[in-house]
Amino acid sequence: MAHDPLHLDHVNWYHDQVVFLTGATGNLGGCILYKLAVQLPTKKIYVLCRRSFEQAMDKWEASMPEQVEEIFDSGKVHCLIGDTTEPNLGLKKADRDRLQQEVTVVIHGAASISMFQELHEAVQQHCSPMANMIHLASQLAHLQTFVYISSISVCMLLSDGTAKEQFVKASADEPDPEEQVASIMATHSSPYSDRFPTSYSQAKYLAERLLFAQEGSFPILVVRPASIGPAIRDPYPLYGVPGSTPVDTAIHLFTQSGVYRSLSGTRKFSEETVIDEIPVDLTANGCLLHIACGSRGIVHLGCQLYITRSLSDFMIQWQKYGPKDMELRIARLNKERNGALARQAYEALYRSHRGWFFDCSRSQPLQVTEGPIGLSLANHDFEQYARLRMEKQGRIWTQQMKIWDSHVD
């Protein structure tokens, strides 16, 4: 049962919670881990580490070098070696037993974020782990909420317009998700692929269908973030795992290849096309708030909870705060460098931002919440955030260009 979001101590709700978190070395997962360990009174956090603890630690030290010690000094984090693609998550029996007896909240965020995988590869990366996570969840004695971090791109099977916080099937006579997954793995194709902007979106959609088929077995919350941008504040300003912020990645690809020149001139794009993006820490806050509120079903987290920006806005910010010698440097590049990948990114960006309005009404009452997991934007200086972000990306871009210039010379 959902609680009154305006009369709930969202922070102290976590006092007795034991969380099982997958994807903790990723962009959003790392931010959630930081908040659970440092900012919330979480009782215990079990983190699934693929391959080894050392590899996970290397990733945390790279993405959160100043915060790692604080996270583990909390004494709350317990790392378990396993793999979401393996039966029983590849966990030792003793570890499975601990989870079964202790876990109250599951946050499943482990996923490949590649937009350009073959369909069968994307389905393997998203749907096999979901089946394994469902099997685990069915065995948890004290489970209060199973949270799946999906993607707002799942809604893009719809025509342009308002995408509500609800589940919509690709077709009224669509086969069961298990049947579709088996067919895709056997044939490497699907009759519904043209309904989705990317294989990633379709795989996320099928993973959602697998999960909702279990509705009634345990409480389910599906969180669909829009494109995730750098952090406003936590774990630190502009936090973001390299390659995990789609807009920044697209800017680099476009400018490195020359594709950026046609962005505003093409008939496909309007300069007023909304690029739906939300900072990673607001995304983490929205997820954690809805868990505390007892939310069920589907929740969207997008720019309606932050600031709505158009393609033109991003281009103006890049031109205003980016490298001043950008045009000269690009002129020296081989225009085919990264060209194919940039065109892929360009097409994906177009297909993902055609003209939807992503409804975020379930989170709007929470926009007054403050504190470590609040959605309030009080005292947030957007212009400074935009300037620092573009300056940082400019430094990265300039360094890469210097490397390429040396090869050209």
UniProtKB/TrEMBL annotation:
<dbReference type="GO" id="GO:0005777">
    <property type="term" value="C:peroxisome"/>
</dbReference>
<dbReference type="InterPro" id="IPR036291">
    <property type="entry name" value="NAD(P)-bd_dom_sf"/>
</dbReference>
<protein>
    <recommendedName>
        <fullName>Fatty acyl-CoA reductase</fullName>
        <ecNumber>1.2.1.84</ecNumber>
    </recommendedName>
</protein>
<keyword id="KW-0443">Lipid metabolism</keyword>
<comment type="function">
    <text>Catalyzes the reduction of fatty acyl-CoA to fatty alcohols.</text>
</comment>
<dbReference type="GO" id="GO:0035336">
    <property type="term" value="P:long-chain fatty-acyl-CoA metabolic process"/>
</dbReference>
<dbReference type="GO" id="GO:0102965">
    <property type="term" value="F:alcohol-forming long-chain fatty acyl-CoA reductase activity"/>
</dbReference>
<dbReference type="Pfam" id="PF07993">
    <property type="entry name" value="NAD_binding_4"/>
</dbReference>
<feature type="domain" description="Thioester reductase (TE)">
    <location>
        <begin position="21"/>
        <end position="285"/>
    </location>
</feature>
<dbReference type="InterPro" id="IPR026055">
    <property type="entry name" value="FAR"/>
</dbReference>
<dbReference type="InterPro" id="IPR013120">
    <property type="entry name" value="FAR_NAD-bd"/>
</dbReference>
<keyword id="KW-0521">NADP</keyword>
<keyword id="KW-0560">Oxidoreductase</keyword>
<comment type="similarity">
    <text>Belongs to the fatty acyl-CoA reductase family.</text>
</comment>
<dbReference type="GO" id="GO:0080019">
    <property type="term" value="F:alcohol-forming very long-chain fatty acyl-CoA reductase activity"/>
</dbReference>
<keyword id="KW-0444">Lipid biosynthesis</keyword>
